[in-house]
Every structure is written in C-alpha cells, then in structure tokens.
Amino acid sequence: MHDTPPGPHEPGPDAALVGELRELMEQAAAGLAPLPDLTQEAVRLGRRRRFRARAAVVGAVTGVLAAGGIGSAALGGVLDGGQASPSVRSATPAAPLTPVPTPETTLAPTPVPEATPDAVHRKRAAEALSLALGDWIGPVTPSGSDLFVARRDGHAFPVRFQAVPDGSEGVAPCPGAVELLEPESTESPGSNCRTTWQPDGRIEARVTVAYGEVSGLRSVSVLYRYAGSTVKLAVDPDTAAGVSPPVTADQVLSAAVSTVLLPEAKYLAEGSLASASAGVSSSASVRPTGAGGADDA
User: Fold this and answer.
1) Nearest alpha-carbon partner for 72 in 96, 44, 52, 91
2) How far separated are the first and last CA of the chain, in Å rounded?
3) Read out DSSP for the chain?
4) Which of 70, 188, 198, 219 could be cross-linked to 294 through a Cys-Cys bond (beta carbons 3.0 to 4.6 Å apart)?
C-alpha cells in the first residue's frame, strides 16, 4: 500500500523537523548573554584611525616648514657676514640698508699742448731728411728747439738745413773756382768747392767739402738759390767721437735738390722771407751737444 500524502493543511515531516530544531536552539541559547552591538564600536574605531592619519599629515607638514625656516635663518646669518646663532633668528625682516652717497671726484682733463706750426714743420723736415739721406747717415730727428741730428753706428752727425733771404740772382762762385775733390780721394786740410747746375738747368748749386784745420774731420755742404732765398744743407762730423760723416758730396747734392726735400726747402725759404720783412732772421741749424761741425765754407 502507498502512503497517502498529507493534505494542504497538515504539516509535513520536514516542517515538523525544522520546528523541533528551532525549539532546541532556543532552549540552548536561553542561558547565554545577549550579543553586543558591534555597529557603534566599528564607528568609533574608524574615527580614531582618521584622527591619527590627519595628525601624522599635519606633523609632517609642520616639520618641513620648521626645517625650511631654520635653514633660511641660518643662511641669512652667514650671508650677512656673521655666524649663525644656535637658536633660530627672529623672522622679523631687517630694515633695508640705505646706501651712503659718496662724493664724486671730478678730474679735470689734462690739456694737451698743441703742436706749433714750426714744430710740425720740423718733424716733417726730419722725415724728409731721413728719406733723402737716411741710407748713408741714418735716420734724422729733431734735437732741441732748432736742431737736427742723424745717428748711425752709435755716432751723431749734426745736420744743418736752413734758408737765408738773399737778393742776388745766384749763389756766390767758389773762391778761385777750385775743382771739388771727393772725400774718398783726399783728406787734405782746407776746403774744396765747385759750382754745378742741375741737369734740368733750373738750380745752380755750390758744393763744398771742408776739413777742420786741427781735427782734419770733414763736413759736406750744399748751397743753392730757391724760392727767393739761399738754402743750405750741411752734414757735419761727430767731433766728440772723431768720425767724419759717411756721405759724399754728390750724395748730399742729390739729396738737397731731391723732390722729397725741395718742398721743405720752399717752406723754409718762404718763412725766411716773412721773417726778413719783419726784421727778424729765420734759420734752422743743427748742432747737438758735444758735437760740432767743421769750418763752414
């Protein structure tokens, strides 16, 4: 025979079993204390953790700011030239330093003396003489107020370059028309002279080689008419050293009428004429200290 299933209002065997289990569990838990409320404890622990986290962040920030302030104060003390204090300096900024104005010293410019026209011409004449005679007697420079001197091999040879107003039509002839003897052919005392015309026929010159009566040293001079004056170019010996100038008469003549020296000769001639009109003689002669020329022709 098969069991008849329970009706809709009759409890089945499973429902009866569940009910018995529930009664047994209620009887077992009847003597136990009630469970605590865990919600409030969880909330309290969460708040405490957030507080600790915030405190740690605030402490870290405060430490960084404090370290920066101490470092700035110490660095400021070193830059001010003093030693850093063990304690942190006051954060109050120091008053700015007001620079003390120093009186300015104004130096008056030193006036540069202007070169006179005569000084400018003498410098130019020395350069022209160096170009015309420098190959034989060395460079020529002004010496003193109205002097020139040529230097070669440690010797000083006076050079005279001057112009004198003269109303004559030509240079004075040589005394007795003595023919010129070149220095390399004779060293006899006295004077040797000749008068010559330049190849272009415009300038007549008198060339003289003179020897000192005592020293026997030789000097060479050239006179010629130019621009209304008598121009003279002479090279004298170094009497202090007892040395005659290493130049011949023809070389001095060639230099005297060269295109380099004639413009300076014209300047001297015009100056001598202007001085003559004012009653003053104008000349430029060279004779350094300790050196004198032979007898003039």
Assistant:
1) 91
2) 189
3) -PPPPP-TTS--HHHHHHHHHHHHHHHHHTTSPPPP-HHHHHHHHHHHHHHHHHHHHHHHHHHHHHHHHHHHHHHHHHHTTSPPPSSPPP-SPPPPPPPPPPPPPPPPPPPPPPPPHHHHHHHHHHHHHHHHHHHHH--EEE-SSS-EEEEETTEEEEEEEEEEE--SSSPPPPGGGPPP--TTT---SEEEEEEEE-TTSS-EEEEEEEE-TTT--EEEEEEEEETTEEEEEEE--BTTTTB--S--HHHHHHHHTSTTTHHHHHHHHHHHHHHHHTT---------TT-------
4) 219
Q: Return the closest-CA partner of residue 271 out of 227, 234, 232, 223.
A: 227
CA–CA distance, 131 with 95 (Å, rounded to integer) = 74
- Its pTM stands at 0.54
Tens digit of pLDDT per residue, the chain (297 long)?
455 555 555 556 677 788 888 888 877 777 666 666 667 777 777 788 887 878 777 777 777 677 776 666 655 655 555 554 444 455 555 666 666 655 555 555 566 556 788 888 889 999 999 999 999 999 999 986 667 999 999 999 999 998 888 766 667 777 754 454 444 444 445 678 888 888 777 888 999 999 988 889 999 999 998 888 899 999 999 999 999 999 999 999 999 999 999 999 998 888 877 776 676 444 454 445 444 444 444
